[in-house]
Amino acid sequence: MLVVAIAIFVVGCSGPTVAKGPLYSAEQLAQIEQTTADVMVLRERMLDIPGLVRKGDWNDVRTFIHGPLGELRSKMSTLSRQLRPINAQKEALTAAREVFTHLNAIDEATQSTDPNKAFANYNEVIRDFDAFLDLIPTNAG
């Protein structure tokens, strides 16, 4: 009987369980989805890089990185800042920085016309980009 009384007291004294709501409102998810769609278009455009490198079109590779992909940094940063919780933001910003580190290395490869460096960093760009996209929510959970 004493054990039951203690159990009731302990359970009764513990704080109420607070139900967690969704991390994102419907509006936030809509904004995230729109920004993600913009980023995905740029991700798809990256598929042009290997062909340009194979052809030795170094000026086109460089122009492509600074032209169409020029807005990628801004869009990835915007998307990162929309993520919750804060550790997801930090992970996304880290992945985005890695993407740009490798894009910069591809840009350097255009100056030295080094296809091995370009291809190696292209593979890393894609890997880091996909890691970034894995952090993006697809629903309210």
Task: Produce a short descriptive summary.
By secondary structure, the chain is mainly alpha-helical.
Strand and helix map with partners:
Blueprint: H1 2-13, H2 26-45, H3 49-55, H4 58-66, H5 72-81, H6 86-112, H7 115-134
Report what the structure shows.
The chain has 141 residues and is an all-alpha fold. The protein has a single domain, classed as Up-down Bundle (Four Helix Bundle (Hemerythrin (Met), subunit A)), CATH 1.20.120. 74% of the residues lie in helices and 0% in strands. The protein is built from seven helices and no strands. It starts with a helix and ends in a 7-residue tail after the last helix. The model is unreliable at 2-7 and 14-19 (pLDDT under 50).
